[in-house]
Amino acid sequence: MKPDWLDKKEYPFKPNFLELEAGKMHYIDEGEGPAIVMVHGTPTWSFMYRDLIKKLRKRYRCIAMDMIGFGLSDKPKDWSYKPRAHAANFEALMEHLQLRDITLLVHDFGAPIGLAYAIKHPENVQGVVMLNSWTWSLSKHQTFTKASKYLVGPLGKFLHSKLNVSNNTLIEELFKDADELPEPIKKHYMNGLGNPDEPVRNLACARELVGASKWYEELWKERKKIRNIPTLILWGERDKLVKIEALQRWKKFFHECYVIPFEDGGHFLQEENADEIAGYVSNFVKEEIKKKELIDN
């Protein structure tokens, strides 16, 4: 059952749920064709991919989950919410759907969640589309203070600094640089976290973004397993959370990497440039399918 606050015209998708030990995890499964699996960051949910899905589902099968604690998924208070646990839930969804030859589309905190699956099952991942993201520990980053050195990444650092504000205020600040984002759209992100007036410090998903450096380091050590996966990087250059240095690191890492910069884009390209992103993603998937067919033949 969809909540009263959800605009069904804005988000016109059939709800699906996977029963997990942590609770019910909501996901979208729209369209037919080659599978594109979209993994959201934090503190967002699959709502961020709604415009991409509306355009891409005409030709592709589009899957987007809400991590436990986000969007239309359950928000249990006694679950761990650690990145490793989110990654295990994502793997469970992939096994449930029995997906193969997927294109993995990741953003922000969704990158380590999605790439953890790719590292474990590289044979199932045909290509990666990445938007402003990181997947490494910042525990040794010299510009961080001792108190913040265990934050998992830029978003963790940002959220940690906002623990005493309301969810409402958090979303307002997070999206303040997104061009002309309507207030009703912002409210969908607020409501996707639960009570908009609840302090961020009460969100287990926010608290567990700290102290995860060990998992990031483990993940980064295994990165060579995905180095040869063709990758398209779409990068908002005005991002104040994930800096351009992260893009340079990704460019050096992937062997087959195509980069499309958005000079005026920020952290949330899915909201700011949905039409362009949908076109680039579609072209990338089509080209990778053609290349694979040539190799197989």
Automatic annotation (TrEMBL):
GO terms for molecular function: catalytic activity. Gene3D superfamilies: alpha/beta hydrolase. Residues 34-274 form the AB hydrolase-1 domain. InterPro entries: AB_hydrolase_1, AB_hydrolase_fold, AB_hydrolase_sf, Epox_hydrolase-like. It comes from the Bacteria. GO terms for cellular component: membrane. This is Haloalkane dehalogenase. It comes from Pontibacter chinhatensis.
